[in-house]
Amino acid sequence: MELIEALRAELGEAQVLTGADAARYGRDVTGKYSWNPLAVLRPATAGEVSAVMQLAHAAGMPVVPVGGHTGLNGGTSAEGVLMLSLERMNRIREIRPEARVAIVESGVVLAKLHEAAEQHGLAFPLFFGARGSAMIGGNLSTNAGGSNVLRYGNTRALCLGLEVVLADGRVMDLMSELHKDNSGYDLKDLFIGAEGTLGVITAAVLKLVPKPRAYATAMVAAPSLSEALVLLNRLQEATGGAVEAFEFMPRSYMERMAICHPELRPPFGQTYDVTLMVEVGATAPRDVTPGPDGTVPIAALLEETLAGMLEEEMILDAVVASSEAQRNEMWHRRELAAEITLSRHPLVDTDIAVPLDQVATFIERIHARLPALDPGFETMNVAHLGDGNMHFTVYPTSDDPVLADRIREAIEDVVLELRGSFSAEHGVGLSKLPSMRRRKDPVALEVMRAVKTALDPKGILNPGKVLP
Amino acid sequence: MELIEALRAELGEAQVLTGADAARYGRDVTGKYSWNPLAVLRPATAGEVSAVMQLAHAAGMPVVPVGGHTGLNGGTSAEGVLMLSLERMNRIREIRPEARVAIVESGVVLAKLHEAAEQHGLAFPLFFGARGSAMIGGNLSTNAGGSNVLRYGNTRALCLGLEVVLADGRVMDLMSELHKDNSGYDLKDLFIGAEGTLGVITAAVLKLVPKPRAYATAMVAAPSLSEALVLLNRLQEATGGAVEAFEFMPRSYMERMAICHPELRPPFGQTYDVTLMVEVGATAPRDVTPGPDGTVPIAALLEETLAGMLEEEMILDAVVASSEAQRNEMWHRRELAAEITLSRHPLVDTDIAVPLDQVATFIERIHARLPALDPGFETMNVAHLGDGNMHFTVYPTSDDPVLADRIREAIEDVVLELRGSFSAEHGVGLSKLPSMRRRKDPVALEVMRAVKTALDPKGILNPGKVLP
């Protein structure tokens, strides 16, 4: 094929994979999606990405950018078309500690950036289970969330500048390091979260933050989600907004964990309806200087807040981590969520968000509606509670796609009633196209299509994703 | 004229101003721009804005949206076309203190929102001199900055959702209250900062923050900007990032203030090269609980940091405000910047940004280049130093437009060398069109034009602004 030959001439034989070499790129972490790419391209520079896009554009051949293959919605499936892997663009070009920025290529693995920032006493505060494989380009293209959004925002909030290769190969330089820049339209944010449908992100300027000097971490049992919100607000007040994570694990999750991982010690002697994992981070020296009784202030603030809530019977139990090992144990329980949630079938999984004060209402309403669809349903609802973001999962009693769709629609009905979103942090990809079609504001969809057509008139960038 | 009649039928006679009634809309706060609008329209609802846009679109008649007339770059000039004033859409629809959001129409005056938030113990942390007239719609359309960007970000960072009327009258509902929402392209940020060229913002969901319980405010004299940066970093570390404002006033500003406002007490017995106004905000109760010596911790942290710097001779003098009156006096000195800067002519004023650690280099390089253009030049450089954002102003010795342009080009040269921006917080409007043409990445300009054409194919929304 002429195009493949031309690509080989540009990138070198070794960087244009076909056949069996390409086949291992034909799946992602979910195991739900698989495909046969025409070829896999592995450019090493923005110039090479540009050359690839020029050739593909001329040929009208679709190109699907891919990073660490950790997407959850099939956003990188590429049947019979080109895959453009950013894995070789994996340089951390520069870390400037005083300016608190990292300049990276998009194939840098998230955990590598964590390590590099840490060497300067700084942190890149984007944190989730797949950090050992997920790449910065994919994080940006999906506007990834995770467990620290509460304090630091999602990937969008952590990006100051971008380099993007457009559908026809033009390279756009938006590599600003500035915190204030009003020179025309905000193009950067158009490409963040566009899942590779508007351009290929090749490099970025990312914000770093001071690495907390200490964490105070606790497991808490609460009578209901209302008290959980009171706890969140009191902790934010006491610490001046230093809550880094506020994660909810329901009874069903803790029970299932006991089955899947009997080796893990449960946090409490009994299982509660509402188990929370709470973490506060201290960046100021005064917060980690031990007081007369040896307690560091950040831990004292957490303990005092929890003690007050216990006394008022607004929480039922609490345990504060007294070592890094205990803290890791707490995080480990939370990070098993994907594995544990996906260990039962059939399932209908979601990634929804509602306003913070509407989480309890959502749960109440959906539990009132599901019995009419499937009286035997069960649920699991691990949530980034501090963001109103739930990975609400339903286990229906039969593996019927019509039933699954009805359950999904019922969830979306309640989410929309509460002015929430059917897609909070994982993006749209393929799997949420039906939700986009039926739930997104129709004018917003028209505007998205107009933007897509303006930037990719031949429709070659990751076609069939995001926009129904 | 048929169009005017149709508009009167939609909005009512009283809300379509022409002649002398319209004339008073033909200028802005700068006094530099004036124009004669064909008519001024004052719709009261998004539906009426939609009706206006449908009629204008059908007629191919340009429409210039306007809020509080406080723009500094001529972004609302509208010779012979329609002006669409949002001033009657001035309702704060809802404040939900628990969710920390305000839902407002775009004609709400910024200071009114400040007052409304304060009644709930909250703050809308966008703060600048024109807050008594500037309206939320204009703040959003220009992505306004100001004195608290350091802690809270610019207007973009404070907006969760928007309602936008498009060029042809379609109403787009992006009124999300969510902190996580990845349902397709980030359209919201495309309209923020677009200066009314892509759509008319009619309502917004805005973030509120806890109002600091106390402020610690100080005037500081430093030997140079390098020590100023050390001070900023030490204060951020000591307070865990609670610095709300970090403002630079040069010797030339303090000297001119003594002339323009002899009634004002100067902060120090002598005038220094580098005068800073520093403010730290305390949101946690522990920061405002007096210690054994009666000092509240937030003030103690500021005083200790300043004392340490004095001892090391890294600052020359410092005075901490001991009353709200003294704090107001400090702010008043800073807020005279626009008046004092504009009180001398001829002048070349700018709104530039460079990376935080490059401010001193900028000043050094520009002072090395200007003498070749005008040996007698003087400068004034009041700056949001914590953001790297300078309102660098040059006073040339002659009122020669060619000289003014050369000075502007020299400033832009240095700014671009340092990877800065020629437009930091005031937007582009008319006055920065030449800079957009010669300085913006050409591919970025092409993409902006493609987006503009996609969303406003007839080019009726605020034509001739932002894009050269």
UniProtKB/TrEMBL annotation, chains A, B:
Residues 33-211 form the FAD-binding PCMH-type domain. It comes from Acidimangrovimonas pyrenivorans. This is FAD-binding oxidoreductase. Belongs to the FAD-binding oxidoreductase/transferase type 4 family. Pfam families: FAD-oxidase_C, FAD_binding_4. PROSITE patterns: FAD_PCMH. The keyword Metal-binding does not apply. Keywords: FAD, Flavoprotein. SUPFAM superfamilies: FAD-binding/transporter-associated domain-like (SSF56176), FAD-linked oxidases, C-terminal domain (SSF55103).
